[in-house]
Amino acid sequence: MNLRAIGVVARLQVQRSRLKTGQKPNRVYDTSPLADAPQMQVSPQGAMAVWPDGRTEIDVHHLRHPQSQHAVNNGVSIDFTPNYARMRERFGHHVWNGCAGENLLIETGEALTLADLEGGLVIHCGASNEDLRLGDSLIALPCLEFSRFALRLPQAEKTSAEIKDALQFLDGGTRGYYVTPMNHAAPLVVSVGDRVFLSSVP
Length: 202
Hints:
The protein is mainly β and 202 residues long. The protein has helices at residues 81-91, 144-151, 161-170; strands at 3-15, 20-21, 28-29, 34-37, 39-43, 46-50, 56-58, 76-80, 104-108, 121-125, 130-139, 177-181, 188-191, 195-199. It has one domain (3-199): M1 Pyruvate Kinase, Domain 3. Strands 1-9-8-12-11-10-14 form a seven-stranded mixed beta barrel. Strands 7-6-5-13 form a four-stranded antiparallel sheet, with no helix packed on it.
């Protein structure tokens, strides 16, 4: 496996509950359920925050969450800091790092695409001196509610030109990616500051 260092884990967070609240077609995007943590347990079942006192808090996309929003491939999500720079340039500074709700935000100087992630990512977990491999990357499709949040147009219609343009801009991985832990069935603890590597396809 050929590895190339691309950055570090800059933020870890869980969604305590759904970020989209209210009833269709008037649902709004609410970032208040997001909670950032210094460490996170990551497994194929999903993500759990680890607090300094040892307590854990489960993400809403984890299989074990009481109101789990887990689908086939959405248990763990990632994004990259250059995507937030692009979003802020387009929409404004209210689009803060992490507001899209990903579990792991990776600080890097590279603009990575889905093709770049074909070989997967490797995070060196400092807490255990083990490597967590993340593969099967999928684009996290942007939604109407996050587009309204980005545009600061909470009542914008799905068919409006502003929403269509925003959805197109946020697609292609800008909103983030879903990934699957590949080499460990049991959780590994990822910490803020852990090194991240890009694995190249043989």
